[in-house]
Amino acid sequence: MPAISTNTAANSAVRYLNINSMQETSALSKLSSGSRITSASDDAAGLAISTRISS
């Protein structure tokens, strides 16, 4: 009877690579926009205040 095994080290490595990739994407979007707040998830209250000030 064959046994099914998983490579937990590889699964963990892929998980951390995905987390780092998402963090890198977020950091690069903030850098490229030149703004501290790029979306409501960054700072909801700050976004509301900045949109009122700019309008």
From TrEMBL:
Residues 4-54 form the Flagellin N-terminal domain. SUPFAM superfamilies: Phase 1 flagellin. InterPro entries: Flagellin_N. One of its GO terms (molecular function) is structural molecule activity. Keywords: Bacterial flagellum, Cell projection, Cilium, Flagellum. It comes from the Bacteria. GO terms for cellular component: bacterial-type flagellum. It is found in: Bacterial flagellum. Pfam families: Flagellin_N. Belongs to the bacterial flagellin family. This is Flagellin. It comes from Klebsiella pneumoniae.
